[in-house]
Amino acid sequence: MSCRFCGTLLPHGTLVCDVCGGEQDASPRREPERPEPRPQLQYVEPEPFRATCLEHEGMPLLGTCPRCEKPVCVRCAPDAVNDQLACTDCYGLGVAHRPAPAGAVCAVHADKKAVFVCERCGSFACSSCRRENDTSGRCVKCTLPTGNLASRSDRFVANLVDHLLVVGVPLVLLLVVGFSSVSTFTRDDGAASNVAVVMVLGTFGAIGLSFTAQIVAQLRWGQSIGKRLTGIKVVRTDGSPIELWRLLILRNGVMFVISNAFGLIGLVDILLIFTDGRRCIHDHLADSIVIEERSGATLGAPRNGEQVDAPKT
Known about the structure:
Distance between the termini: 115 Å
Number of helices: 7
Shape: rod-shaped
Oligomer: single chain
Strand content: 5-15%
C-alpha cells in the first residue's frame, strides 16, 4: 500500500506514515471491479425458406387454391400446367356451386369435407358427389340422367287407357244396367227408383275403384296402368322419381280445374305435346317429363348405342 498523502510505499496495515505522519485508513482499499467481457456474437446466414406441401412431402408450393385458399403443389392442382391452381376437391366447380361453410362434411361421405352446397336439395356435398362437367350446381343425386322422351303416340295411348279405366268402365256399367232395366221402369215405379239408386251407387263405386287401382299402380310401379302398358314413365326434369303429391295435385288436379274453367286452356295443353320438348302445361306445373322405361336397363343409359335426348325446358 502507499500513503494517501505523500505516496510513500508503506507496509500493509500501516496506520501512520513515517515520512509525512499522515494517518491512513484502517479499511483496505478495494480495487474497482472490472466488467466481464461480453461474448462475441457470430452472425450465421439463414437458409432460404422453402415452403413445401403438407400432403406431398418435399413438393414446393405453387400458391393457394382460389376457391378454398388451400396451399397447393403441382400434385394438388390437376391443371397446374395451365396455371390453374384449383385443388383436387375444387377442380371443376363453377359459379353455380355454392361454397360449403368451413368445417362442413359431406352428407353422404361423412369422412370427407364438403366443398359445395347442392342448389336443389341444399345438402353438403364433397368432390365425389358431383357429376363430371356439371354446371348446374347440383349433387349427383339431383342430376340423375334422363332417358329418351316418350313418343307422342305412346303418351296418347297411355292417356286413352287411363281415361277408359276411370271413366269408360263406369260408363259401360251404367249403360248395361240401364238397358237391362228398361222393362222394369215401365212396370213398377218403385223398382225403377231402386234401379236408379243402384246405377248411381254403382257408377261412383266403379269410378272410385278405378281411381284406387291407378293410385296403387302409381305407388307400386311409379306409373299409371296405361303408362305401364305402353312402357313410359313420368319423372322430374332431372330424372329423379316424381312425388305422388306432385303427380296428383300439380300434374292432374290443378290442370283438371283450369281446363274445366277455361276450355281453351285444355286445348292448348294438348297441343303443346307437339313442341320439341313434348311438355304440356301440366308437365311444366309439376316440373316433369315423360320418358321411356327400359326394362332391365339403368335409367338414362343408352340402348343399343342410341343417343339419349336431353329434355328441353
